[in-house]
Amino acid sequence: MKNKKNTISKWTFALIAMFFIQSCSDKFDDIEGQLNADDLDYSNTENMIQALAGSYNIFATRGWEEPLLLSVRGDDVNAGGLGDQQQFADTDNFVYTQDYWMYNSLWNIHYGDIVGLNTEIGLIENFKSFADESGQATADQYIAEIKVLRAWLHFNLARVWGDVFIIQTTTPDTEIADGPASKDEVMQFISDQMDEAIPLLPNMRPNERTDVPGGVTRYTAYALKAMAQLELENYQGVADTCGAIISSNKFTLYPDFYSLFKKPGELSDESLLEMQFSDYGSSTGDTFYHLYGPFGPQGWTPARANASDGWGFYEPSMKFIKFMLDRDETVRLETSVLWTDRGIAELQADPNYATLPSFVNKTTRDGDIINDYARALFASGKHYLPSVQITTGRNDYGGGKNMIVIRYAEILLMYAEALTRGASGTGMTADQAVNLVRSRAGLGGLSGVTSDQVMDEKFAELAMEWGIRYYDMIRLDNFSELSYDGRTFSADKQLLPYPQAQLDALPTLGGGGN
């Protein structure tokens, strides 16, 4: 089951009505239809916002396999899916097949979306040429927003493959002919682009925007810059950039970790970037959903009848679960893992875990029962929406659930890591940053926090989110952590191989560092 997504050509852009929204529960409303760019009246500059809307639609329309493939190699998550997609399970075990369709899909969709975003930038530039001074400033802001979304796509590509193309046009023949940029060059490109975007973007939280609720702001750009600086191991740059977010005093952690990943936590004061999905609260009609089925358990007994189950392709690792139990984690472990009796029994087969907390139970606090299924022992709780929160009349697993991309907890922990690695910061200490995160988790404070403690906190807090754990271990050359449960990781396994179809089509790619 492959998700095929059409690349938006330079002659068209989607009409997406996501504006003048009355509440955070109303999201990206997809109005069918496309316009030929030759038919657009660029002098009607009010229509410029449609190109921005099209960009958010491009950003949020992800193939189901993309977040799975970005994450699966970490020691926090296993492939699951036993009996299906063997090469996905092989990837989890660091055995790579160059012609595996998922690799090519991730590459194609990401680059197709980059070109699509460049198309929307071009349309806005056409509107800008007809705009007055105020309209030109609006156009600059919209373009800056799109560049942030484009930077996130480049960021993923560089972390997965290392040397990749930087594409800033709709006809990238020349950029491809010049060959791929190194990973460090891509990260510096992202950082520089964010420096250009920051002063053009709204000085507010995403959820404070009234024109595009949840849209990109300057703090989203700061976050992308910090992430790029972390990959460059420029820890002072990380501290400075995260410090700008922290010192704004605009962001706070959502108080309920469990609900953060469900409907109540959507577009919270913790969110810096979020993919928004919805059925608009209606039991019939259009929907704009992400396909969450791959994350979910098979054959569950939902509290709300007829809610669909999942595919069993994404399993929290036993290593992660034991790590969390050893730390006396409660809410973060309950939130992160959906339990089966079979998984619990296998956990208890280890005498160290014979007695488990009461929340380690196949019935979630919302009444959904996670029955045994063959493909995995556990399922991801962070990608689970309780069946009672699915709109009446809708049945898709996770239907309408948002997907958080960047949140304030990650900013705090990046900042703390940077300080423990020698950077200087202002306004908050590493202890204070870590303890904010720990306090929400119901854990006591730390004093004199070390880099290793920060990394443990990141493991506990950010597990199963966008591969953060895997790429941290790669950045730190901490390969021993990735050699677990029979896996053997080595330095030559850090990057996925370029998809064979891309090597065949793009001769300059073969000269890269992969």
Automatic annotation (TrEMBL):
It is found in: Cell outer membrane. Transmembrane segments: none annotated. InterPro entries: SusD-like_N (IPR033985), SusD_RagB_dom (IPR012944), TPR-like_helical_dom_sf (IPR011990). Gene3D superfamilies: 1.25.40.390. PROSITE patterns: PROKAR_LIPOPROTEIN. Residues 314-481 form the RagB/SusD domain. Keywords: Cell outer membrane, Membrane, Signal. One of its GO terms (cellular component) is cell outer membrane. It holds the Pfam family SusD-like_3. This is Starch-binding associating with outer membrane. It comes from Flagellimonas taeanensis. The lineage of its organism: Bacteria, Pseudomonadati, Bacteroidota, Flavobacteriia, Flavobacteriales.
